Amino acid sequence: MKRIIGIFTLLIVVYLFTWVMSDLLTGRQSFLSAYNQENLLRRTALFGIIGVGVAFVIITGGIDLSVGSVVCLIGVGFPWVAVELNQPVWFALLLTFVVCLLIGLTHGILITLLRLQPFVVTLCGLLLYRGITRGFTNDQTAGFKDEMQGLRWLANGEIPITAEFGLPVPCLILAVVATLAALFLNRTIYGRYLLAMGNNEEAARFSGINTDLMTIIAYVICAMLSGLGGLLFVLDTNSAQPVDFGNFYELFAIAAAVLGGCSLRGGSGTIFGVIIGTALIQLLRNMITLVDEIPQNIEFAVIGAVILAGAIGDEIARKVFTRDPKATINQGSDS
Prior knowledge:
Layout: H1 2-24, H2 34-59, H3 67-84, H4 89-112, H5 118-137, E1 142-143, H6 149-156, E2 158-160, E3 166-168, H7 169-187, H8 189-199, H9 201-206, H10 211-237, E4 239-240, H11 249-259, H12 271-290, H13 299-321, H14 325-334
Antiparallel strand pairs: 1-4, 2-3
């Protein structure tokens, strides 16, 4: 909880800094404009969905580097099947679901049955899924053109709040995903199994937990939410190029999870924290774009520094909370 309060405080500080540097000192209203705030909320919601998926994997002590390529495969593959191949929308959606399910199952089975490292498995997935996408599309852009306006409302629609401002529909989708994820993680026995496995997989196995099944479940959840994110991303942009669609999205998702309190060692993490971490990452990207004094070409350097800071904070917190109090007392008495 302390870590979430800290990251939320940092979010407020960065928000105020961006407002001062972008609007107050320049006389513009670019940051606080309704358009920018709606776009910031929409991007936070879209990246938050894939961040929640990554959090489940990190909680088990694993990692998924293939998220961006899964986003690409689904984001390009869905319009390609529905529009280019002229297949029914229900069939394209069903195919999307099946593909994501198979990806998650494959990752989980390779990690549990063959005992391959998650880093290796998902790194290969990162290369495979993007390569496959570029192959079946021949590197051609896939999109909806003027079709599926009703379906696209799920990504670019708004719920009117005021005359100038509306709540993006993806925020509602994120709210549903986050609520279900939080209930699963905190209110079901399987969520406790995931946390226990992340803390000590061997001890969890000896206590009767089917750790292989829980690992597979975590990677299936991650793949399914990555696919949902990819679908919403392409519905928002209307088109996608297999060369760069979803590039580095796994970096943003992992950074959000780490900032939100998910330990890279596994065993801890909250869904609310992941959402706060996602909001901070997207706010930093927005700040880099709007503040003239910050060069835009250092975006990835900033994100990398944020991940490093999160990892250092996680290590410091681990050492502080696992320090033996008896040793501290004895050391004090000796002095």
